[in-house]
Amino acid sequence: MALADSRANEPRIDTMAKAPARTPTKASTAALLDLLARLADAGSPREVAGVLAQLARERSGEAAAVVWEQDGAGRMQCEPALQWSAPQQALVHTALARPQAGLVGDGIHAALRLPDAPAVIVLPEPAARALQPALAQPTDALHVAARHLRRALEAAALEGEHKRLAHSERLQRALFAIADRASADLDMPELLHGIHAIVGELMYAENFFIVLHDARADTLRFLYFVDVEDDDPPGNYGDVAMATMEHSLTWYLLRDGKPLMGDAAQLAAQVSGPLRLVGTDSADWLGVPMLRDGRACGAIVVQSYDESIGFSADDRALLEFVASHILTAIERKRSKDELEQRVRSRTFELAHANRALQLGMAERQHAQRLQKALFQIAGLATADISQAEFYRQAHTTIGELMNARNLFIALVSADGESLEFVYSIDETGERYDSRPMGYGLSEYVLRTGPVILSRDDILALARDGEIDLEDVGSLSVCWLGVPLAVADEVIGLIAVQSYDPEIVFGPAEHELLSFVASQVAGSLQRRRSVEALRASHAQLEQRVAERTRELSQEIAEREKAQDQLKHQVMHDALTALPNRSYLLDRIGRVLRHFKRNKSGRCALLYLDVDRFKVINDSLGHLAGDTVLKEFARRLQSCVREPDVVGRLSGDEFAILLEDVPIPGAAIKIAQRVLEEVGKPLTVAGEVIEPSTSIGIAIGDGNYQFADDLLRDADTAMYRAKKAGRRQWVMYDESLQENAVNVLAMEIKLRSALLLDQFEPHFQPIERLADGAVVGYEALLRWNHPVRGPIGPAEFMQVAIDNGSMEAIDWKMFEKTCRLAANLDPERKAYVTINVSPLHFKRDDFDARLLDMLKRTRWPARRLVVELTEGSLIDHPGEVRATLERLRAAGIGAALDDFGTGHSSLSYLHTFPLRLLKIDRSFVAALDGNAHSSSAKIVGAVVALARALEMQVVAEGIETAQQREALAALGCDYGQGFLLGRPAPITQWARSNG
């Protein structure tokens, strides 16, 4: 049947035309009978459709096919089977959608809707139109075949519905069976075995396992496993980490929550990653997840190792449907088991708690009786009764707790040599007399501790030599003895005994008697203590009186020693003057008095021995101590009571003036001290004239602490030292401000050094004859972030005092040498650096300077170090040696500010100097008279320098007249504001460029 060609035009729909009725003939009757015979043999819809298609082909002479709907799902069946084109499919669907018989065609093909069946005949459109009238005749064979097809389809539908109902019934019975087993009293293995059997009734399930997933622990467990090839599941029914099963089929089921079905190749295509087969490979494998709220809580898997047995989509749908019910049954069973376990556990706990409660109640009642008895015995200790009555009442109390018809109490004598039976009751009438220590049962208890003995035990002890039966007396059936102990001392024992075999003592009586014994021992000890207290009271009063007299003598001696110790603590050992602690305490009391009374003033003089270190270093410490003692004596001679002279530390002293006119009296005493201290003094065979510098601070109620007043006086003293010593200075606020400013300057200098804020400014040195620049002097400047460049006059002394000057100089030296290359492109000019006397005290100054030149690559022959006359005075030998080593390396030396110091001519020919710089004070005087004394001095210096082959540089040239005068006097070189002001390297680099 050629139905592959089609056209794109819309199908045409014709209603079934009614043909005129025909009278049946013998031929038609035979054909109809033949048709009926063939239809009778056809049972299924496909066989009836085949007869109908053959009939249509015989009638039309064209290939024909019958198409019908298999079920209500829209799936089509065709007889004979054909491959459909899209237009043919459209024709069929359009024809089947018609409510009545008719023809749908597209000019080439047509679909002829049968009148009595949900089916169509597909054949070429002309042939279809030719057959259309025959289908309208009820007696026509085509019409009869169509009606038979309808009945076959109805029968097939009924059969399918019957199968579905049977399947639903089996599935429902299976679900009921699962639910019944979950609620039955079965253990988990029986439940899972029953579920396996139920699934086996629905499908092939010879190889079957159930796995559960624990999402919190990320583990899985094979809950049930039956397989003809593999004996045990992974983990052997225990928890297995999901990571160990990664990329297996079970892992994908639990992770993705989607069913998997097929052989190994099909399964590999279904999973979302690489597949790792675990166990024996199966011919067909089907697994579905057990879902709860969209999450896979487990999975059910069936598999077949037989190629002839496989699983279908119906099996997968069935297993998916059953899976959720199986999960519910398993969870219900597990919940039920857990609930039963909790109930059993809780029941056990309640039973245990009930038993503990009953025991607790019995123990509480027993404890109450025991406590009552102990209280009664404790009360006997303080009761005003005799000792015999005490023992009798104690026996009565014990008898309320246990059988104590036979009881005795024995105490060890004070010397420990005998045993005194202070109380005894015995049914046999036996007497218990005091006796020396022996080997009875009582002594055995005192030696070994509490004990319960039967008659046999007593005899066994006698055989072992532990006791002597002669000391035992009447043998009892049962004997219980407990020692009476106070702290670690055993003072006696209490014992009960029974002569009746029905009455024996056990652990309960032992524990009870031990409690009672401890209380009886305590009560006995308290009664003994009271008696001993009464006896010793009189002795104590006598001893107290004697001890009181002894203590009075000790207190007097201790007070004397404390006074001596206090004096030693508060006074200086060398001078016997009050020390710093004493003086601070005295000042503090005075200031607090001023603050309370809102009036009053005092004066504090702070002083030390000038150049005391020189005295110590030259004459020795013993001489120094002599000077300090004499200094203290002279200070004391300058004041009167209640003024206080104290030694603060070392050579520092202070004088506190409390009740004098202020400040006049303080000034007078300061002048008196200067005169008295300055008198000559002979020490170690040498006559010295000591001196002092005094700082005076006036104290009043505005001072909070004594240290503040001491600090201000100390500040004034250091101002007096800087002013030249041998004088006094009165403190005012400006001194403190200066001290604060110096501290602030020190902090800023340290910060500037860290931030690299120091830089050199260069001032040219010119040849006066032609104005050529022959060198530059590097001058220190502080590039302040707010004030701009600051000269060294403002901070140099502070830098020297706090020890940072050397570090600043070395930064300047290195910067100068690194920047100097930009000063003179022709590399003919030299650079001078100012070196303070501090550097010449270092033995390694020349080596360090040469090492710096090597790092900066600045030639040594183009460097000149400038030093002042002060550098040559202190250590001339060391300075000369250093300059000689520098000259040997090529570094020149210049004597700066010549004429302002000692101006010793010996410096000029004994030190290796290249330059001589005339101080600006001589140059400034040249503006007036060219024949002045300054001009003569300059001329003499120039002549002397030339004689010594030294170059002369005049400093501070500020006018043309000065320059001309210097040139006339024969001075070769000069520097000053007229020739060029100090400026940063950038300015000179631009001008030279």
The overall average pLDDT, rounded, is 82
What characteristic shape results from the CA principal axes? flat
Largest sheet: 8 strands, mixed, barrel
Content-based structural category:
alpha+beta
Range of helix content: 40-55%
User: Could you give the order of strands across the largest sheet?
Assistant: 26-27-29-30-31-32-33-34
How far is the first residue's CA from the last residue's CA?
107 Å
Strand percent estimate: 15-25%
Low-confidence stretches: 1-24
C-alpha-based Rg, rounded = 65 Å
DSSP, total strands: 34
Number of helices, counting only DSSP H or I runs of 4 residues or more: 29
Provide structural commentary:
α5 (141-183) runs parallel beside α9, α14 (580-597) packs across α18 (706-722) and α15 (612-619) crosses α16. Mean pLDDT is 82; it is low at 1-24. The chain is 48% helix and 20% strand. It is flat and about 175 Å long. The longest helix has 70 residues, at 313-382. The protein starts with 11 loop residues before the first strand and ends with a helix. The protein is α+β, with helices and mostly antiparallel strands.
